[in-house]
Amino acid sequence: MTRENLLVDPLLTIDTPDGGQRQVSLPGLFAAMERGEVFAFPKLRPHQDHPWHAFLCQLAALALRDSHLPQARPGHPETWLGQHDEEGWRVLLRTLTSDFRDDEPWRLVVEDPAKPAFMQPPVEGSALAKQKPEDFWATPDDMDVLETAKRHGIKNALIDPGSLEHWVYALVSVQTQAPFGGSGHQASSRQNGAYGARSGVGIRLSQRVDMCWARDTRILLDHPDHWAACGIDYDFRHGLALVWLVPWNGETSLAPTRLHPWYIEISRLTRLKRTPAGLLHATYITASSTRVEAKETHGNVGDPWVPILKETTPKSYNSVPRYHKVCEVLFDDEKYVPSLMQMPAKIDGTGPMTVCFRFLSRGQSKTEGYHERHVPFGHAQSRFLGARKNLALEMSRSMIELASRVEQALYLAALKRMQAGRPVPDAKQPETSRWANRIRRDMDDEVNEHFFPRLWDCLERHEDGATLVDSVRPWLDWLASCARTRFALAGQSLPSSCTLGMFAQAQAEILLERKLSGIFNPQPLRRNAHGK
Fold it and tell me: Do residues 519 and 402 lie in contact, with contact meaning Cβ atoms separated by under 8 Å?
C-alpha cells in the first residue's frame, strides 16, 4: 500500500535540535513541535517557508479553536498550546474533515475526482470535460509558483517526482500564494493584484520553527476577531475553513462571507495522479474564475501576517523589504496597519526578538526574486515597536533623507567625472546616467545592509540626551565615508578621456565635497514625525 496519507504516514522530514533528522506524519509534526523537537524543515525551499508556516499555524488554530488552552507563560513555549500526543492531534485534524471517513482530504492521491485529496478540491463533472491530456506538471517544482528562465540560478523540473514530501510543499505553495499564471491559472486571494505577492511579516523569537509556530498559533487563538478591521463579514463559527473540501468547476467563486477568517484556500484546479509506470504527476484544469471572490479587497482579507497600506482603497503590503519600506511598515502607523504577527505580544516577554519580512517579488509571467529580511530588536530596542515608535519613525526619516541626499551627491559627482566637458552634469545623457545610477545603487545597497544597526546607535545617542542633529552625526559621517569610497572605486572604472582624466577627477571631487559640505551644515532637521 502506498504511503500517501499525511495523518498516518511519516512523509515530512524534520531536523531536531540535537542535530538529528527523522520523518513524521502531520499529527506527529504538531506533537513534536509542542515538545520543542523541531528545529527546521530541511527539504523546504526558501520561497515555500512562509506559506508552509502559515498553513501549519492556521491548521493548528482551526483544530484547537474549541479546546481549553493553558495559561501561556513568556519564555515557556510548552505552555502556549498545551501538550498533545500524535494520536490526540490525529483526532483533532480528523474532526475538521469528519465527513470523510477514509481520510481523503489528507491523502495525496485519491482516484475518485468527486472526492477531495490533500489541497486538491473535488472536480465537478462540467470541469472534467475540459481536461486535456497534455495539461500536467511532471515534477513538484514544475507545479510550484517560481517562473524560471535559462539565466536563473534555480531551474524547474529538477526535483524527483517520486518525492512525496516535495509534492506536499509544492501543493501548499501553489494553492496559497499563486500569482496569476496566464489564462486559466488564477491567483491567491491574499495578495494585491494578479502579480502581487503574499507577504509574510512577523516577529520571531528564535530560529527554531517549533517556537515560531507555537507563538503565531497561540496569537491567532488569542485574537479571534483580529480580522474584523478588514471589513469582511466572515463566519467564525460555521464558515468554510478548508476550502479544498468542497467541489469546484473552475467557473464559480466563493464569497468571503462564506468562509472562516482563518481559511486555507486553494487557487488552482489540480489533482495528483499516478502514471501507468507508477510515477506521480499533477494534472490541471484551467479556471475562468478565482476560487475566492476577493479581487475588490486588494489583498486586505485579514491575513495575520500581512500589513495593510492605508489608502483610499486599503491594499496589502506588496514591496521588496528595503530599509525605507521596512521603516514605514514597522514605525509609521499613519501609513500602514501593522500585521497581527509583527506586534509584540505578552508571550514574547522582554527578551530580544526579530521582525522577519518574507516577500516573493513577481511580474507578469516572471519571478523577480525571493527576499527575506530579519530586523533584530534587542532588549533595549523592543520599545521602538511600542511606546517609543514615534521616535524611531522620526529618526529613521531623518536618516533616510540624509542617505538620499548623500547618494544624490555621489550620483552628480559620478556624472561630473564622466562628463568632463560639461559645466553642469546632464542626467539626461543616457550612457553616463546609467553608469552613475549603478554607482548610486551600489551605495544604496550598502546603506540597506547597515541601516538598522546604525539606527539603533542613533536612537541610543538620542535617548542619552543628544539632540536629533547630534544623534545622526555618526550616521552622516558614515554616509560621507561610504560616498567617498564609492567615488574612488568608480574613478578607477568609469570611462573618460585620458587627457581630461585628471581634470575630470579633480572637478568631480570638488563637486562631491561641496555637496557633502552642504549636507554637513544643513537646515535644522525635522523635530517630530510630522516634520513640524
Answer: yes
User: CA-CA distance, 247 to 440, in Å (whole number)?
Assistant: 53
Among the listed residues 9, 313, 292, 308, the one whose alpha carbon sits nearest the alpha carbon of residue 168:
9
Cell readout for 361 is: 517579488
Same domain for 288 and 423, yes or no, is no
Does 358 fall in a domain? no
Tell me: the pLDDT tens digits for 99-119? Answer: 999 999 999 999 999 999 999
CA 320 to chain centre: 9
CATH code, domain with 404: 1.10.132.100
Beta strands 366-377 and 353-363 are antiparallel
Q: Which residues neighbour 94 within 8 Å (Cβ) at sequence distance 6 or greater? A: 7, 103
CA nearest neighbour of 54 among 206, 195, 262, 256:
262
Domain containing 474 equals 390-520
pLDDT, tens digit (0-9, with 9 covering 90-100), for 455-468: 999 999 999 999 98
Mean pLDDT by 10 residues, the chain (532 residues): 86 97 98 97 95 98 95 92 96 97 97 96 85 86 73 58 92 92 84 85 96 98 92 94 96 95 95 90 92 93 96 92 97 96 93 94 73 93 90 96 96 85 75 89 97 96 92 96 93 60 81 91 49 40
For 253, other C-beta atoms within 10 Å of its C-beta total 17
CB atoms within 10 A of CB 42: 10
Q: Are 447 and 403 in contact (CB under 8 A)?
A: yes
**Domains: count for the chain:** 2
Is 415 found in the same domain as 294? no
The answer to whether 378 and 411 have CB atoms below 8 angstroms apart is no
